[in-house]
Amino acid sequence: MSHQQAARPPVVQMPRPPIEQTPRPPIVFGTDGWRARVADEYTYENVRRCAEGVARYVLQQGSAAKGVMVGYDRRFASEYFAQAAAEVLLAFDIPVLFAAAPIPTQMTSFEVVTRGAATAIMITASHNPWTDNGFKVKSPSGAAAGPEILEVLEATISGHAADDPPRRPFADGEAAGMVEIVDPFDGYQEYVGRTLDLDRLRAADASVLVEPMYGSGAGWIPRLLRGGRIRVREIHSERNPWFGGVNPEPIRPNIDEALGILASGGHDLGLLLDGDADRAGAIDERGTFIHQLQVMGLLMYYLLEHRGLREPVVYTVNETSMVERLGQRYGVPIHETSVGFKYVGPRMIETGAMMGGEESGGYGFGMHLPERDGIYADLLLLDLFLREREAGRWPVSRAVAHLHEIAGPSFYLRTDVHLDRASYPGVKQRLWAELSVRPPATLDGEPVVRSVKLGTNDGFKWWTPDGSWLLIRFSGTEPLVRVYVEATSAGTRDAMLRAGERLVRGGE
User: Fold this and answer.
1) How far is it, in rounded angstroms, from Cα 356 to Cα 89?
2) Cα(225)–Cα(363) distance, rounded to whole angstroms?
3) In whole angstroms, how far apart are CA 163 and each of 46, 82, 157?
4) Superfamily of domain 34-183
């Protein structure tokens, strides 16, 4: 066998074990849609699963012929995730209205309202870190999809977890006339003009700084106000999916650059937007941040005092007590809801409210849309301050001081206690158990005179004798616990905030 190879043993084919498909994780919608980290949980596969849930919901409602609006923001790959969602809708023979460019979230609501679309999908993670993206759904009314819709979507997504969603190529849908490319600006400008005198704002002798935080609201306010005397300067207008290294939420310290520009002089007012432009904010002429609860009070005062409206107001459990005081002063009903515009919007429709607001800076208006609109809210703030100037209350800081003269003090602050995703459920469970049984008896040395256990995510709220309050709440979209305080003085606010943090950290 010196010239021959040794005989090889026969190859034995071993049977392969059956491939077990890993169960797909459930998708749970929080206070404002589903959000997750891109390339981790937020994948094309999961976006398609969400889109299939929407498609099957639309078919169940018998409204497929009305079509679905699909929009997207400026985050990383948002336009491609939006296209992936559209391809699933097309596979179910549902026509698609597809945004021509990144748009503010409320423009999807606008298209639902004005076109009578079945619903809308918005690809955005709003104010979340740049690493995240998200999936929002609108109801047929244009409001944020409420719990009754989201529960159906979650169940539908879960019920088809073993199947790959069907897809129809986007180009094929375009060629078949199933896709309409939409630019909502002109229609929105006309719509806003029905309830707000844009020409009056354009003619104002005022200088305004706009901070859109690199988001999809960039360019909208300058375009709406162009052609007049008013001077509008916008910063951070370019697309930057990193958002300059900050979360695109219009609060400090994220807006400190804008505060510095106002403090240096030359501007009468600063107007703020978040990453998808459904939240509003403001800065006075001195560079002082007008916090979200003050904005709620200012907008409510504007509608009551300057517009003469007397319809109800809806607000969330973490909103300002100024709502109660203004309601009493002007004799209007107020209605409190859980956190999230998925609760506020439907309650606005139910009660015929003139406005609704939440602590995060989201405000909706009955004369406009039943959904948050940061652009419209900012324009109303501008109108308010111009009207206050005519009444002799100028500059902006004087108008804010007048609000507190009639609505009481509001020293507000919120802090977020961040946790890792793995430990968050355990911390949430511990806090819920401990605070349910042993709520604090005092806060900053003052007795707790009222204590309320809210829903599972909304947490706990306590009041002291002077009306100051502390709220501990569990985020529905991020692994963190939020601590909120509204107090009658800055010192009381800071002390109560520290007390709240100690409660969350277990006395550390």
Assistant:
1) 32
2) 21
3) 12, 20, 10
4) Alpha-D-Glucose-1,6-Bisphosphate, subunit A, domain 3 (3.40.120.10)
198-407 and 411-504, same CATH topology: no
What is d(CA 226, CA 202) in angstroms, rounded to the nearest whole number?
Answer: 7
Strand partners, 208: 232, 269
Look at residue 458 in the predicted model and tell me its pLDDT: 83
Please state whether the predicted TM-score (pTM) of the whole model is above 0.85.
Answer: yes
pLDDT digits (tens, 9 = 90+) for 220-248: 999 999 999 999 999 999 999 999 999 99
Residue 33 per-residue DSSP state: B
| Residue from 21, 262, 341 nearest 161 by CA | 21
Q: 135 by DSSP, 3-state: which?
A: strand
CA gap 299, 374 in Å, rounded: 12
**Which pairs count as long-range contacts for 296-299, CB under 8 Å and 24+ apart, including other chains?**
296/320, 296/322, 296/323, 296/357, 296/363, 297/322, 297/323, 297/326, 297/403, 297/407, 297/410, 298/381, 298/384, 298/399, 298/400, 298/403, 299/355, 299/357, 299/363, 299/377, 299/380, 299/381, 299/384
Name the class of domain 198-407: alpha beta
DSSP three-state, residue 428: helix
- Distances in Å between the Cα of 398 and the Cα atoms of 267, 357, 456 are 15, 23, 40
Query: DSSP letter at 15?
Result: P
Tokens of 480: 């963190």
| Element of type H or E holding 87 | helix 78-91
Cα–Cα distance measured from residue 360 to residue 343, given in angstroms and rounded to the nearest whole number: 14
DSSP 287-337: S-EE-HHHHHHHHHHIIIIIS-----EEEETTS-THHHHHHHHHT--EEEE
CA 360 and chain centroid, separation:
7
Q: Between the CA of residue 89 and those of 82, 93, 97, what are the distances in Å?
A: 11, 7, 11
- Domain locations along the chain: 34-183, 198-407, 411-504
Largest CA distance in the chain: 112
For tokens 């109560």, the residue is 496
Question: Nearest-CA neighbor of 99 among 113, 114, 80?
Answer: 80
Q: What is the CATH number of domain 411-504?
A: 3.30.310.50
Is the CB of residue 252 less than 8 Å from the CB of residue 205?
A: no
One DSSP character per residue, 220-242 reads: HHHHHHTTSS-EEEE-S-S--TT
Q: What is the pLDDT of residues 323-354, one digit of tens each?
A: 999 999 999 999 999 888 888 988 999 999 99
